[in-house]
Amino acid sequence: MRIRPISPDLLVTELTGRLADAADRAASAAAGLARLRVAVDGAPAAGVDELAAALVDPLRAQGHPVLHVRATDFLRPASLRFELGRTNPDSFYEAWVDEAGLRREVLDPAGPGGSGRLLPSLWDADADRASRARYVDLAPGGVVLVSGSLLLGGGLPFDVTVHLELSPAALRRRTEPAQQWALSAFDRYAEEVVPASFADVVVRADDPRRPALVEPGGND
User: Which end of the chain is more exposed for a tag (fewer CB within 10 A), N or C?
Assistant: First the structure.
């Protein structure tokens, strides 16, 4: 593989181009009726929500309707998330995100033959109640960006996957002290799922000022 350093701004530009091209190809293959489902996956410390948010306006400027959905707006109720305690890493890994709700309200409607009627958020975790968000119609040719942690390897139907990779040392250094309890879940994800081995785009994000794209060919 080849590691290509890139500036944060250029990373957004290159990702925008790749995703716009993928959306165009998907639309052409489906007589203009397809939408593109994109995962922006990684630990919170990698800045996945921020990267997805930065892609919205550039993609719209290229003519693609865009909806950004955060996985943290599709968490399960506290009674289920915290059944084994508030800081249980296995529960965080296996049971925090409402994958069925994310599929039902976002990924399936944005997929082949879907209605395009998407729900931007399902659950307000702070209030521990339904978010009462309104449905949004994503037109054909549109892109839905789903940002969050532990999104890959579980069968969620994404068309393009972007993984922001942190070394173990960087993950520990950049994770807030109050969230250190979850680190073993990310270690488990890296060991069991190995998202960097199959994601369509892998970005090494140890230093947010100096990301690097992992590309086929060449040497480390």
Answer: C
Q: Which amino acid is at 8?
A: P
Instruction: Check if the beta carbon of residue 36 is closer than 8 Å to that of residue 26.
Output: yes
Partnered with residue 75 across adjacent β-strands are 97
| Residue 65 near residue 142, CB atoms below 8 Å | yes
Q: Name the pTM for this structure.
A: 0.96
> What are the tens digits of pLDDT across the range 39-78?
999 999 999 999 999 999 999 999 999 999 999 999 999 9
> With 70 as the cut, is the pLDDT of residue 174 above it?
yes
Domain ranges of the chain: 2-215
Between CA 125 and CA 31 the distance in angstroms is: 39
Residue for token pair 């397809």: 34
User: Residues, the chain, total?
Assistant: 220
How far from 28 is each of 61, 139, 145, CA to CA, in Å? 19, 14, 20
Q: For residue range 54-63, list pLDDT tens digits in order.
A: 999 999 999 9
Count of CA atoms in the C-beta half-sphere (13 A) of 157: 15
Locate 18 and state its tokens.
């790749």
DSSP count for the chain of H helices, then E strands: 8, 11
CATH 2.30.30.100 fits domain 2-215:
no
